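Intended use. Records like the one below are meant for learning the mapping from a protein sequence to its folded structure. Do not use them to infer anything beyond what is encoded.
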Amino acid sequence: MAQRRVVVGSSVGLHSRPAALLVQAAARQPVPISIGKDGEEFVDARSILSVIGLDARGGDEVVLRAEGAEGSDAEAALDELVAVIAANHDSGELNSA
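Structure written out for the chain above:
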């Protein structure tokens, strides 16, 4: 199983728009992805309710796992999702339609 740690870049955390972008990116991946915080249960990164339920706030560290997968597919999937989580999506919060 491939795994990565990443700090949430948006001050709003993984809520509303950042969570939706993460869920959309996770759904595009060829491998199942889970997300969690240290010491807590991991959840399906394709579930908006599960991602929001993590209560991951700006500056929190989360862990991504490519379930049952290793190699280039898992690494590429994690690269894309790390970029989504680390990005500051705050500037587009009010302007997205």
